Amino acid sequence: MVRIGLTGGIGSGKSYVARLLAARGIPVYDSDSEAKRLSDTSLSIREQLVALTGNDSLYADGLLNRQMLASYLFVSKENAHNVEGIIHPAVKADFAEWVGRQNGDICVIESAILMESGFTEVVDYVVVVDAPVELRINRCIKRDSSTKEKVLQRMAAQMPQEEKCALADFVIFNDDISDLEQQIDELLQSLNRIM
Q: What average pLDDT does the segment 23-37 reach?
């Protein structure tokens, strides 16, 4: 089975492209949702996060206080690295198990930080969804009811989009003009020729 890593900067539309792939019957592993699920269900992850951030990172019911954890995470790169060191290995292991349960020729892992987190080592090809910066900003403001400043701050915390595109095996351009379905067809045709 060919494992595709699907990534792109905030507001690029990678989740939309993932939904289009899923609609074609291609299994998609959403690393963000799965990381949240694992954080909520894994006692080991919760214990490690509490040891790292303190008891305030849990609510009384034992679930993670995501707002507090996010505030810890975005304070410094070191904090982010520490949290990722707990969550990423668990997600990688879960993804490997998930792949083993899939049928077909292709599966996808969607991850905003695929390259930054080292997930490229568990995929065969990387697909980056790209979009113009202003469009990405406007999408995030609309989607998240955010401000331009907050979106720019989150963009600055991610690997530059140009760098992601340069490292990608394939790039899908999502500018609200280019035909996404045609680009996905071309991607799948290219993968079929490679397989």
A: 95
